[in-house]
Amino acid sequence: MSETVPHLGDTEQLKAMLEDVASPEQLRALLDAPGVDDELIDGFVAAAGAEDVLDRVFGLMGEHFVAERAGNDGGVVRWDVTAPGGTLSYGLSIRDGAAIGERGAPAGPKVTLTLSAPTLLRLCAGRLNGVQGFMTGKIKLSGDMMFGAKLPGWFDY
């Protein structure tokens, strides 16, 4: 991000850049830039607005969901994302061949994932394997572990 991202104080430019991210490939390009670490990612998230970043990420999840991979499986996933300024909750509802993400803690989730904003971005970009993230403690999971383990395979990256 250091070479391709505008100065972290330039909020309007950061928000415009965020809107340009429409695919895991584009997110990977940002995350793979020289010098990008958790601190820089958190700085970007804070400067661009944590809710704006997460709204974009959860909105794009539906576009990159591959229904055939999920088959008849589905349910509600709660994501508790630690971002600068606090923890934000999002729901991802997977049903009827679609995945719909929205801000707020959903009722009755099948699984709850707790992770940092940098970990979420790496997961969505395909730079972090979900099982590896869980095994190393970067992702905490409660609820249906089998369902949680299958989730990453239902999205293209």
From TrEMBL:
InterPro entries: SCP2_sterol-bd_dom (IPR003033), SCP2_sterol-bd_dom_sf (IPR036527). Gene3D superfamilies: SCP2 sterol-binding domain. It comes from the Bacteria. Residues 74-153 form the SCP2 domain. This is SCP2 sterol-binding domain-containing protein.
